[in-house]
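Retro notes
What went well: the complex prediction finally ran end to end.
Inputs used:
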Amino acid sequence: MAFIQAVLDGLMIGGVYAVISIGLTLVFGVMGIVNFAQAEFLMLGMFVAYFAWAYLGLDPLIGSILSFIVIFCIGLVQRTLIQRVMKAPPVAQIFLTIGLLIVIENLALLAFGSSFRSVSTSYQTSSLRIGPLFVSVPYLAAFCMAVLSGFALWLFTDRSWYGQAMRATAQNPLAARLMGIDVERMQQIAFGLGVGLTAFGGAIVLPYFTVNPTVGSQFVVLMFTAVVLGGLGNVVGAVIGGLAVGVIQSLSALLFPIQLQNLVLFLVFIGVLALRPTGLVGSSR
Amino acid sequence: MTKAVTPHVRGVFATRRRVLALGAAGLAMPFVRRASAKGAPVNVGVILPLSGANAQFGVNSRNGIELVAEQINARGGIKALEGAPINLVIADATSTPTTAATVGQRLITQNNVVAILGAYASSLTLALSEVTERRDIPLMTMSFSDQITGRGFKNIFQIIAKASVLGAAQLDGTVAIAKSAGQTLERIAIMYEDTAYGVSQAKGLRDAAGKLGIKVVMDEAYPLGITDVTPLINKLRGANAQAVFPASYLNDGLQIIRSMRQQSIAMPIIGGAGGYVIPDFRKALGEYAENVLSIAPGNYDLAPQLTDAFRKKYGYFMVHEALEHAVCLDVLAQALEIAKAADPAAVRKAMSEAEFKGGWCDAMPGGVVKFDQTGLNTHAVPMMVQWRGEDLVTVWPDQLAKAKPVWSAA
């Protein structure tokens, strides 16, 4: 029973990891840039939802939509920065995104101060009981929102013209351009969408997590692990990677001290990469 | 502080810069003149985590220090040094030990500090103390890992009890409070973040439990910055403990208590200071904070006549780290009066020999501060505090208690 409970908890938290990781993998898939500042957008998304709760009285789960919109727009503007290094050597791209990470984090420290902020909602201390199993309501709510957003993203990329154009850009920018697709515009939208989704993921964990300007560092490693585990640039891979990270963390706590949960995670991670360097669902590109 | 900067002037734009520089110098003038009329200002280094994970506690500490510095300067500075004012040189240790050591080095070589206060987190203080010891600069701290005074250093002065003593008192106090409610404590759970602070506090608890014959049914460390505490709470649920002792900062502390509520685990919670004794704890948890107990090295209700000034200035109660840093600065000022020189060696001598009374020392248990050869304040005693509405009330030991403790499932 403890096993089922652990898997359940792991899946629910993994759902959230999946959403924030999709954002990262999307940016890489379409633009070919590893955005090290991605976790800072998670932090910004959390702050948007926090302020929406504090001043507008919006529940963070609804505020998360606002987070997505705000950060999506910021993403569109910020793209002017990334565009300049698109053809630069990878080192320049790495420096740019890491620099961005430091700038955003410290601006947030200046603007919001360093204190931890937490929302209080009616459901955050309740849970559902299914026989001997406990389902935490804030976890479940976050998971449902994650599934909804994943579904919305699938609809967008699979059914809409923009989504198809974006996938075409990811597959072959040159061919896409020949087909009359505005590649720069697609990349811009992909970036906005990527950071917006990560921000959304940050907002939906707000009912059980506190926000402060350095919160990104707590998620950045998990996020990259999920993405690389699934295969860089692969959206389905990010979902599977995210879920896997959650479940591995949760299960490892059953067998080993909790202190070692990330050690176990990285052992599995190294193992997977040794056997399948392209990730769980990645095909050799 | 009033170092003049001469810009290399060239062209038309530089004149504006020169005007600015002149203006800045002009603004700084009154301070220079006041300084020369009185004794030269005494530079006191303050190294705290002002950014990063522990920033909030660093800012609280800085507020306490600034309050006391203002008070000392307002009443005419250090009298034995012709009224020299205290000049705080504040530096950010971030939350990384190596940075704490680097900025310590910088303050000593560049700012000529007579002593350093800091660095809140034990891991930072340990790194910083390596530098201050080598350079023979007194370091006053309210960090409490056992290692701090356990290395035979000559230049460290710790204002509060050590972690192992805190851990032991945490259990003793809990046993006493349970007993007053007619309960015998037999099985406890310990969970702690795996930093210097959590580890040494857990060790204190564990050792004390061994001595009292209390069974530790759960003893679990978890990484700093944990993103999901569910596994921890699942273990707690299966552990059949009577009370839980979490040693954590704020984020993990909130997650732990919320997850306990979700799973309807009702047992007394005895926090290990850190995140359990700050206003944000109550703000985030609301009614769920009520009656949560915590160990504390100090509490503002022991000397409201002193700590109310803090509440008035900053709008929240004087948290213990602010209080203890305030005491540190007051003790340093008293040591300067005795030493009659802004000289690190003389200050260290005064600090290790004298007994300090009055002023902010009144906010410490016993109202006295006296350091032994290891640099530990021998009069410091830990206390238990409990949340009552918006306030933290001292409830144990009896001679310090301001209210009767309540033994209840939080």
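What we learned: Residues 9-214 of chain A form one domain.
What to try next: split runs per interface for comparison.
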